[in-house]
Amino acid sequence: xxxxxxxxxxxxxxADLNVPLSGxxxxxxxxxxxxxxxxxxxxxxxxERGAAVVVVSHLxxxxxxDPELSMAPVATRLGELAGGDVRLASGVVGPEVAREAEAxxxxxxxVLENSRFEPGETKNDPTLAGAxxxxxxxxxxxxxGAAHRAHASTEGVARxxxxxxxxxxxxxxxxxxxxxxxxxxxxxxxLGGAKVTDKIGVIERFLASAERILIGGAxxxxxxxxxxxxxxxxxxxxxxVRLAGEVLRKARDSGCELMLPVDLVAGRAFSADTExxxxxxxxxxxxxxxxxxxxxxxxxYAEAIAAAGTVxxxxxxxxxxxxxxxxxxxxxxxAVARAPGFTVVGGGDSAAALAGFGLADEVDWLSTGGGAxxxxxxxxxxxGVEALRDA
Length: 391
Fold this sequence. Notes:
With 391 residues, this protein is α/β, with parallel strands linked by helices. It has 2 domains: 10-165, 3-Layer(aba) Sandwich (Rossmann fold); 173-378, Phosphoglycerate kinase, N-terminal domain (Rossmann fold). 37% of the residues lie in helices and 16% in strands. The protein has helices spanning 34-48, 72-82, 95-102, 126-133, 152-156, 167-181, 196-207, 220-226, 238-252, 295-306, 327-338, 349-356, 371-378, 383-390, and strands at residues 10-14, 21-22, 29-30, 52-56, 86-88, 109-111, 138-141, 162-165, 187-191, 212-215, 257-259, 264-267, 276-279, 289-293, 310-314, 342-345, 365-366. It has a 6-stranded parallel sheet with strand order 5-6-4-1-7-8, with helices on both faces. Strands 11-10-9-15-16-17 form a 6-stranded parallel sheet, sandwiched between helices. A 3-stranded antiparallel sheet has the order 13-12-14. Helix 3 (95-102) links the parallel strand 5 (86-88) and strand 6 (109-111). The protein starts with 9 loop residues before the first strand and ends with a helix.
């Protein structure tokens, strides 16, 4: 977008303002403004260039026009942070919205209603994409967190206007691609979360290029179950067990060390008030569930992280939202924050954990995209990015 002619033109900016809200009705407010702040540099540059900006984003997964998922509180907070005139449109598209967009002066912002209020958004409906394109003369996509979706506001409209990458999307692609294709060695990849199926593409990609992959979270139980180790009442993805077996076989033939937990913290139930115990190993007794990696695992993972030239982390080590089971994720977060190498953390729960531990500013790049960052790391094309290449 730095190269685009933007002065005195209307720009349709696809931002990722899908933020959590608190409260109900008129008391609704933005609970976490991280994504709004991430969009500010692009908005500020557009306004400096004299553009009038029409902002489009989705918010949650509404079923129809749900007032609880209106963009109103987001527009209010954006106005407070951007320090300018920010208005909320009467809808997503339509004659009245078109008049509201045409009335914008240079530097003014109009926030469209939740793009998913329109059923054609997630279907990449060409009629909706065309109506969005009529609101502006230039398209800028800065919504990396939604770039892996071929939706009307991310892919369809980009093929109807001159399209450019916003500052955030540009840096996301640059930083993540550098880790994937040209990392400083050794490369250590940390993967957690619940499902092996969600991470199988990333695991297989990095088995061929990373020096170490560290596994945590409930996905580790697919590996231990495959190896015949009892998992008790732990969360196990059955399809993941078969995939874990394939990963273990591929790891043996690769130059990558696949590291699994060597101890666990277990609870009787998924609750902050449950009885807990440390397990000296990964055998989970009946009536117990593994909810975090143990201290020996954290120590071995921290040692690997400290020796890395590049670290990529996506997914927590356990149920970090419950204090008795937060130590594993906190320990890994501390190690990543202290790591001398280049550190990149994928979005979603990993980013939330870093923020909760006060460590968000201690890594080199904190991605705003969970699913998008994983797909990019796998080597898959992101529709929202590819549409800009063709624009």
